[in-house]
Write a structure and sequence with these properties.
Layout: E1 3-6, H1 31-40, E2 44-50, H2 52-55, H3 61-76, E3 82-88, H4 92-95, H5 106-115, E4 123-126, H6 129-137, E5 141-145, H7 150-153, E6 161-163, H8 166-174
Parallel strand pairs: 1-2, 1-4, 2-3, 4-5, 5-6
The chain binds magnesium ion and zinc ion.
Zinc ion (ZN) binds near residues 88, 90, 98, 100 and 101.
Length: about 180
């Protein structure tokens, strides 16, 4: 299956540092329409998210799951489903090194295996170079959006593609973008 693998904060929902309150979950402009287009093009969706707030003891894995559930509830209103949320709860300074904190590829490899992701026809979409590098390490086309940290990250790495927002990305895919 072809997938769009999303970062969560700053990509799907408004970046709020160390978000732990489901009531603060707010879709970024263009995400709703963009995801509907991508869904209609036959893409499935997963999220891979770094949540070092857990290692820092700012919030629990349960809090993080509640935020994810709220996002899923919002997306369900227009029949969009995130198949799975992959969470890295670590931070090297607090819990030691791990193989799952983006740009490490542990979670991406798991997702590829879990869902038999078609690498050649999938995309990794995020707002940070850690997202871009993670996707590129597994030869998945990387897409940097200008939401979240995108505008400050754009010169720090070389994304395969970049767009102002999710809707522009989806429209470009729809136009039959091949590379
Ligand atoms: Mg992000
Ligand atoms: Zn990790």
């Amino acid at each position: 299956m072809k997938y769009v693998i999303f970062d969560r904060d700053g990509t799907l929902i408004v970046e709020k540092n160390y978000l732990s309150n489901p009531d603060e979950v707010c879709l970024i402009d263009g995400v709703k329409q963009g995801l509907i287009i991508l869904k209609n093009l036959g893409f499935e969706f997963v999220v891979i998210t770094n949540q070092s707030g857990i290692a820092r003891n700012y919030y629990s894995i349960d809090d993080c799951n509640k935020v994810n559930q709220r996002l899923s509830d919002i997306l369900a209103k227009f029949n969009v489903e995130i198949k799975k949320y992959y969470i890295c709860p670590h931070h090297p300074d607090f819990s030691g090194k791990c193989n799952c904190r983006k740009p490490e590829t542990g979670l991406l490899e798991k997702a590829i295996e879990d869902f038999d992701i078609d690498i050649d026809n999938s995309y990794f979409v995020g707002d940070k170079c850690s997202d871009i590098i993670c996707g590129q390490r597994k030869n998945i086309k990387s897409v940097l959006l200008m939401s979240g940290y995108g505008k400050t990250e754009i010169n720090k790495c070389k994304a395969d593609l970049s767009f102002e927002n999710m809707l522009e990305f989806a429209r470009e895919v729809e136009r039959g973008l091949k590379s």
